[in-house]
Design brief:
binds NADPH dihydro-nicotinamide-adenine-dinucleotide phosphate; Rossmann fold; globular; 40% helix; hydrolase; alpha/beta; single chain; 3-stranded parallel β-sheet
Length: 296
């Protein structure tokens, strides 16, 4: 059996198209343009690439994009003052502070200073609490993208056994909450889990968010399961740099029913969901109906 490939690149393009169409309608019918502000502190090369690609995608769907690039030695007071200005700016509906921040800045304090209604990363403690109690919140982009792909593939997820490998605050935990919200029976596995292979083999839906190249192998996958690979790992193979996931794709695809590739699976969905969250935040701020199919 060879698994169906879940094409995250194509799905993300569809989501971006739906966001763009909604943005165009907002402009035409209400004279409103959603706005996203991205704040980058320091010159981390990977973060610079992420920020410029977020800005480009934001403009492509017709939203206003604002980038604040601050020097690495920016004080916490100056950063908090900028966030306060963005919180008060009615043309900005989403605020994203690119992580990681330089060591002298308290990330928790900074993230929790963002207006929760504009917290399009879904990392503010209020949004974490709202998601955990099944209430309307801003949902972290990567798990939201995984949920969208799973709903698209399965229709209803109710009653399926889901195993999430990884318990980070940005992927594993919110992913588990979202699957629980869709009535899966959820297990969260981590580095102290006993007999991880057996736990994984019980999964109808297996989400790998571990950060270890190709750790989940085909023998850990239940025949016919849907495998979502969140991992992005840069490795050297045959003298060349290569991106691989947390799942050993070649062995897992022989057992799984469906699987996301790396690259081209979860990755492209993350930015698409950032745009979807910004649109949702804008609709909520203006008392307008939320876009269908683009929220949890
Ligand atoms: P973290 O390092 O924060 O968390 C990793 C989790 O994996 C931890 O909970 C850890 O357990 C668990 N883990 C580590 N080793 C093992 C093991 N041997 N067996 C079982 N569990 C283990 O990572 P993130 O959640 O931030 O990211 C996970 C992956 O997803 C990374 O590859 C990252 O690059 C990628 N990523 C991709 C994104 C995208 O857009 N596609 C976005 C965000 C992340 P414990 O808690 O016990 O230490």
């Amino acid at each position: 059996m060879t698994a169906a490939i879940i094409d995250g690149k194509a799905f993300a393009a569809k989501v971006r198209g739906e966001v763009a169409a909604h943005v165009a309608r907002l402009k035409e019918e209400h004279g409103i343009q959603p706005g996203l502000a991205v704040v980058l502190v320091g010159e981390d090369p990977a973060s610079q690439v992420y920020v410029s690609s977020k800005g480009k995608s934001t403009v492509e769907v017709g939203m206003k994009s604002v980038e604040h690039k601050l020097p690495a030695d920016t004080s916490e007071a100056d950063l908090l003052a900028l966030i306060a200005r963005l919180n008060a700016d009615s043309s900005i509906h989403g605020i994203l502070v690119q992580l990681p921040l330089p060591g002298h800045l308290n990330s928790e304090l900074v993230i929790n200073s963002i207006d929760p209604a504009k917290d399009v990363d879904g990392f503010h403690i209020s949004n974490v609490g709202l998601l955990g109690t099944g209430q309307k919140s801003m949902v972290p982009c990567t798990p939201l993208g995984c949920l969208m792909m799973l709903r698209d593939h399965h229709g209803s997820l109710a009653g399926l056994n889901a195993v999430v490998v990884g318990r980070s605050n940005i992927v594993g935990k919110p992913m588990a909450q979202l699957l629980l919200g869709d009535s899966c029976t959820v297990t969260i596995a981590h580095s102290r889990t006993k007999d991880l292979a057996a736990v994984c083999r019980g999964a109808d839906i297996l989400v790998a968010a571990v950060g270890r190249p190709e750790m989940i192998t085909g023998d850990m996958v239940k025949p016919g399961a849907t495998v979502i690979d969140v991992g992005i790992n840069r490795i050297e193979r045959d003298g060349k740099g290569k991106l691989v996931g947390d799942v050993h794709f070649d062995s897992a695809k022989e057992v799984a029913g469906a699987i996301t590739p790396v690259p081209g699976g979860v990755g492209p969905m993350t930015i698409a969901c950032l745009l979807a969250n910004t649109l949702t935040a804008c609709c909520r701020a203006n008392g307008l109906p939320e876009p269908k199919g683009l929220t949890a």
